[in-house]
């Protein structure tokens, strides 16, 4: 079945309070997708963000980001007032997320709602906490302790609580009882609102593509609560961390810094933690994209403390065994494998063995130096075609930067010599749409014809990433009609 959709992070939605949320604007976006004949909405990870504001560096792989909680819903419930919500500084740039202002304001206003909620007496809340006890208490305790240490990573905490000694756990649980309940309350709000939004999308015929990073952050409740899952020494310091080797784009490679998995331990447990993780993901999303799929075949191991990725080595991952266990426990599930970059024969075999569709990025197709698997005539049906992803420039921004040779190649390939630069995005959208790929996903910025100012993320850089926001009412009736026409023309309705 051919289908299409749009890529837009929740954070990039317009809203009154500085960052996208599960608010009216999210419902409006779903309505627009439906009107435009789309059947998919792809988002980025929903976890609480930490250092660098990246959704791929989260305080928990199971928790949701409190920034996305709709404050207006809490006003409707009588827990907040509009005056209170408007009294905080959320920033004054509708195209930009000021994370510092969000951080300084969001938790203060949510704390007001919590104190008025009497949530401890709520049967639904208690049932939710009991159902999710396998992760939520560790997360809430972790966040409460982290706050008491002024935000320091757990590896900088006192030894007794860093190592989770029973007596220390009991002391902190008693001392931080209210803070622990507060963080549980935020998760209760998050998942209630998200489930309501997802149900609305599904009713409109829109499936949600969620995204999970292969790795978790060192500064997370996952590593603190379950250090045995990772390659850590007796002092809970990583022995090696994740990244990518040097290539033509980055001569020193990419140093992500995430702790690596102890795959022997995961094998011993029949991959229990991974099965729980994927299972929860499918409770949140209809389709799951797994970031850095190559890491399951081989992972790049960089000595902890290195300043670059140059000295890393490739090590063997779990391979097909993990996915066999996954299939036994969950049956056939709808997974997208992020298989970008250099792929060895063994990675390609793993992808074939799982049957998961990989990804094709049009921006990677036009390298005049060589033929490319990303050129549409090389596709098979079992793949997802994108003009670009959150890690790429926008189509218009990229087109301005590519070499004359690569631009000439794209012109020859699409026979579009006379297309104006300010309309070039439509040619690439049509190229993706008419390809044989079963699924086509277009970033919102490309439909809007935006330039580099709308780029979401530039890998291996800090600052100005993850900050772009979409303007309200930017999709005109005329554009929606055009998108639906193209979607029907290319057989994706």
Structure overview:
The protein is α/β, with parallel strands linked by helices and 493 residues long. It has a domain at 358-437 and 442-493. Helix content is 40%, strand content 11%. It is built from 19 helices and twelve strands. The chain has helices at 24-35, 71-76, 82-86, 99-117, 123-131, 133-148, 159-162, 166-175, 177-203, 221-225, 263-268, 272-284, 320-330, 345-354, 395-401, 404-414, 424-433, 444-447, 477-489, and strands spanning 3-7, 40-42, 207-212, 240-244, 254-259, 287-290, 298-303, 313-316, 335-337, 358-361, 383-386, 439-443. An eight-stranded parallel β-sheet has the order 9-6-3-2-1-12-11-10. Helix 1 links the parallel strand 1 and strand 2 (40-42). The chain starts with a strand and ends with a helix. The relative contact order is 0.13.
List the helices and strands and how they pair.
Layout: E1 3-7, H1 24-35, E2 40-42, H2 71-76, H3 82-86, H4 99-117, H5 123-131, H6 133-148, H7 159-162, H8 166-175, H9 177-203, E3 207-212, H10 221-225, E4 240-244, E5 254-259, H11 263-268, H12 272-284, E6 287-290, E7 298-303, E8 313-316, H13 320-330, E9 335-337, H14 345-354, E10 358-361, E11 383-386, H15 395-401, H16 404-414, H17 424-433, E12 439-443, H18 444-447, H19 477-489
Parallel strand pairs: 1-2, 1-12, 2-3, 3-6, 6-9, 10-11, 11-12
Antiparallel strand pairs: 4-5, 4-7, 7-8
Helix pairs in contact: 5-6, 6-9, 12-13
């Amino acid at each position: 079945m051919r289908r299409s959709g749009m890529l837009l992070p929740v954070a990039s939605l317009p809203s009154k309070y500085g960052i996208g949320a599960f608010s009216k604007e999210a419902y409006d976006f779903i309505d627009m997708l439906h009107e435009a004949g789309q059947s998919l909405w792809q988002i980025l990870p929903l976890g609480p963000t930490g250092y660098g504001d990246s959704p791929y560096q989260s305080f928990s792989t199971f928790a949701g980001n409190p920034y996305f909680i709709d404050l207006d819903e809490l006003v409707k419930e009588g827990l907040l007032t509009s005056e209170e919500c408007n009294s905080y500084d959320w920033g004054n740039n509708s195209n930009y997320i000021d994370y510092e202002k969000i951080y300084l304001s969001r938790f203060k206003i949510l704390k007001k709602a919590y104190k008025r909620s009497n949530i401890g007496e709520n049967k639904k809340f208690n049932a939710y906490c009991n159902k999710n006890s396998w992760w939520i208490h560790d997360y809430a305790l972790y966040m409460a302790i982290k706050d008491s240490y002024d935000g320091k990573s757990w590896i900088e905490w006192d030894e007794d609580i860093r190592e989770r000694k029973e007596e220390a756990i009991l002391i902190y649980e008693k001392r931080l009882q209210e803070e622990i309940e507060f963080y549980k309350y935020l998760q209760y709000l998050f998942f209630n609102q998200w489930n309501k939004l997802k149900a609305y999308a599904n009713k409109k015929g829109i499936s949600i593509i969620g995204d999970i990073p292969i790795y978790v952050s060192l500064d997370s409740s996952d590593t603190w609560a379950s250090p045995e899952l990772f390659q850590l020494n007796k002092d809970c310091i990583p022995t090696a961390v994740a990244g990518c080797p040097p290539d033509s784009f980055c001569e020193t490679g990419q140093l992500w810094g995430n702790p690596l998995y102890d795959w022997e331990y995961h094998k011993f447990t029949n991959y229990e933690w991974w099965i729980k993780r994927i299972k929860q993901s499918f409770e949140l999303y209809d389709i799951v994209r797994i970031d850095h799929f190559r890491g399951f075949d081989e992972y790049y191991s960089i000595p902890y403390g290195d300043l670059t990725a140059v000295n890393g080595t490739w090590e063997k991952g779990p391979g097909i065994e993990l996915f066999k266990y996954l299939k036994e426990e969950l049956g056939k599930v709808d997974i997208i494998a992020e298989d970008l970059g250099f792929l060895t024969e063994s990675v390609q075999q793993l992808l074939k063995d799982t049957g998961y569709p990989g990804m094709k990025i049009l921006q990677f197709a036009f390298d005049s130096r060589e033929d490319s698997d990303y050129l549409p005539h090389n596709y098979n049906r079992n793949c997802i075609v994108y003009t670009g992803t959150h890690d790429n420039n926008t189509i218009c921004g990229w087109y301005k930067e590519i070499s004359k040779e690569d631009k000439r190649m794209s012109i020859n390939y699409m026979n579009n010599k006379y297309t104006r630069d300010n309309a070039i995005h439509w040619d690439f959208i049509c190229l993706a749409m008419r390809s044989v790929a079963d699924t086509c996903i277009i970033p919102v910025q490309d439909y809007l014809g935006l330039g580099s100012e709308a780029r979401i993320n530039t890998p291996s850089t800090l600052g100005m990433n993850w900050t772009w926001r979409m303007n309200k009412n930017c999709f005109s009736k005329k554009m929606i009609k055009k998108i639906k026409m193209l979607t029907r023309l290319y057989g994706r309705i």
